[in-house]
Amino acid sequence: MDWIATLLQGLLLGGVYALFAIGLSLVFGVMRLVNIAHGDMIVLAGFVSFAVVEVLGLGPILSLAIVLPLFFAFGYVLQLAVLNRTLGDDLLPPMIVTFGLAIVIQNGLLQSFAADSRKLSLGEVETASIALGTDIAVGVYPLIIFATAIVTILALQALFYGTKIGREFRATSDDPEAARLMGINTKRVFAVATGVALVVIGIAGVLMAIRTTFDPLSGPVRLLFAFEAVIIGGLGNIWGTLLGGVTLGLAQAIGGAIDPQFQVMAGHLVFLAILIVRPRGFFPKVAH
Amino acid sequence: MTKKQELSRRQVLGGLAGTAAIPALASPALAQNNSLKIGFVQPETGPLAEVASGNAFVLENLRQALAGGLQVDGGQTRNVEIVVRDSQSNSNRASEVAADLILGEEVDIMCAAIHPLTVTPVADQCELNGVPLISSITPWETQFYGRGATDDAPFSYQLHQFWGFGEITNTFIDIWNQLDTNKVVGGLWPNNPDGVGFAQGFTPILEERGFTVIDPGRYQDLTDDFSAIIRMFLENEVEIVTGVVLPPDWTTFWTQAAQQGLSVKAATTAAALAFPGTAEQLGPLAQNHSFDLFWHPSFPFESSVTGQSAADYAAAFEEQTGRQWIQPIGTVHSVFETAIDALKRSGGGDWEATREAMFATNLNTIQGPIVAGSGPVPNAVITPLTGAQWRQSDGPFDFEAVIVSNIAADGVDAGGTVQATA
């Protein structure tokens, strides 16, 4: 019984990690761009939503209607104006630019929101739970996060495999040179892809902001687990990212059940083990 | 010598409208040859910035009060300059800026506050260079035994005014004894110096006083899942939860506890919910959360520098900043009161004379009486510590702190009795 509860909580935690990681996976999958500012962008989304909630008096979920378009535009412009200039054979320049971006976001948030920790409130849903059997209960909100992760992946799947822009994403990802020869404007494709990634980051950020308190410096921690989930699942594969998140969540839950001291380390150990056994992760999309 | 930022970020932003800090403009107009200089090291940025977030007001208030200079014993009036440095919540940086204040600015007395990461390195520098130091906002044991002093060999240059583990343990136990519980305590002590220290310090005392301690072990800060710990608390029927928890960890723990059916009668933490802003963000989940409160507007004390009562002081803070009062402002103010009083009696200029004056302090401050030599060790003076609970309020702010335990706070009245959580 105990083990079932442990595995269930691990699975739900995996949903959290997966949701945090999808945006990172997407950016890497299409552009081979490692976004160091990923965690800070999640936190930024939390703050933007916080500002919308404070100023307009909307609920956090409704604030998505403003946060998501804003983040799409942010991603589009960011890619077009900044990141496109750094893309090339070398992985390093874009990575360093996003590293700088992370510092800018952290300090910009410190300046405008101060160091106080914030949280968005969803009322009773946050603490509500569903009883399964006699001594197992799962939270409603973790279930919502897990469902959101899956719905987001399904939506991305539909976008990638059912639309014209999706075909362009895949073509550009497979071979940017050939895609350009076929008349695809790869710079615009990249801009749209980053826009979509930022929409996913926006969703993750708002859900994170409801889940726990956050402050301007809480981004880098988010990045670490997102990275691990992406790498375990295989770079650029979105379903792989879900699996990576769940692997990480389960490892932490089992580690924590053995000894709470071991919880976070268990996740890191599993990550290392997978790196050794399958350096490219479970389902690498990138073959070259 | 490298120049460093002298005013707080907020003042620089306000005064220079967002232009970069220009060090030449940053020294106050008072800077003259005969100024008395007080150095102050605090974590203005970094993870501990929230604790220092009221200090801009504290300094502004003091600078106004000292604008006309300070009449020292002997009748001479001297200008007083407070030179502030940011430790960035980092001990290496704290050590570096303390050395700069001592050797570069040649301060007459040093002040330091908030967490061992800032206070300990400053104290080490002061001890090394023979500069008197007034410090606060970290349990006194971290500054005495933690830095290697013994009862026979105390430090020569530090006067620390705060409470210690004895006071906080007694206060927490007093809170729990006001409730009808099974006396089973679950400990949330993370794997950081605070967590390790509290786990080692609390557990034996609690067991001695008839409590059962369920300690799941040192978890990592910023854990995303507390299910394992919650199950352990459920199995052992924990009715009291305590710990030194980071705010995001407390939120994660407390919501997961509610989801997984753990409901306790008392939630008493150090650190997690010490500020009204955090309680506000948690909303109803913060109701009746109890914590260590070392200053409150109802403290029956007044400032020896400005003459403001604690209530007036908090009101001035709220009016000027638009934020609810936070507990460090009174404590930090009183650190400066002690420093100014020592300078007043010594006349400044000579570290040894100021040191002697400092160890002869007998002063009523906004934090309470500071009487050097009255503490458990020569370097420490115990200041009042209360236990408080957050209660939702109809007032201008969502939550107010109600004092429910004054067992370690002489002269301070309680504002209510303990109510169970949930």
Could you walk me through the main structural features you see in this protein, from its secondary elements to its overall organization?
Chain A: Its main location: membrane. Chain A: It is found in: Cell membrane. Chain A: The chain crosses the membrane at residues 12-34, 41-58, 64-83, 95-114, 140-161, 189-210, 230-250, 262-283. The complex is a heterodimer of chains A (288) and B (422). Chain A is mostly helical and 288 residues long. Chain A has a single domain (2-277), classed as Orthogonal Bundle (ABC transporter involved in vitamin B12 uptake, BtuC). Chain A has eleven helices and two strands; from the N terminus they run H-H-H-H-E-E-H-H-H-H-H-H-H. Chain A has helices at residues 2-31, 38-56, 60-81, 92-113, 140-162, 164-174, 176-181, 186-211, 219-233, 238-258, 263-277; strands at 129-132, 136-139. A two-stranded antiparallel ribbon of chain A has the order 1-2. Chain A is globular, with a radius of gyration of 19 Å. The mean pLDDT of chain A is 91. Chain B is of the alpha/beta class. Chain B has two domains: 9-163 and 297-381, Rossmann fold (3-Layer(aba) Sandwich), CATH 3.40.50; 167-293 and 385-408, Rossmann fold (3-Layer(aba) Sandwich), CATH 3.40.50.2300. Chain B is built from 14 helices and 17 strands. In chain B, helix 4 (91-104) packs parallel to helix 5. The longest helix of chain B is centred in the C-terminal third of the chain and has 19 residues, at 328-346. The model of chain B is unreliable at 1-7 and 9-32 (pLDDT under 50). The chains are: A mainly alpha (288), B alpha/beta (422). At the A-B interface, helix 1, strand 2, helix 5, helix 10 and helix 11 of A face helix 9, helix 10 and helix 11 of B.
The CATH C-level name of the largest domain in chain B is Alpha Beta
Task: State mean pLDDT of chain A (0 to 100 scale).
Answer: 91
Extract low-pLDDT stretches of chain B.
Answer: 1-7, 9-32
Q: How much helicity do the residues of chain B have?
A: 25-40%
Number of strands of chain A: 2
Strand pairing plus helix content of chain B: what structural class?
Answer: alpha/beta
- What integer value in Å does the Rg of chain A equal? 19 Å
The domain count of chain A comes to 1
State the end-to-end CA separation of chain A: 45 Å
Which ranges of chain A are low-confidence, i.e. pLDDT below 50, for 5 or more consecutive residues?
none
Let me know the largest β-sheet of chain A. Answer: 2 strands, antiparallel
State the CATH class of chain A: Mainly Alpha
Total beta-strand segments of chain B: 17
The strands making up the biggest β-sheet of chain B line up spatially as 9-8-10-11-12-16-17
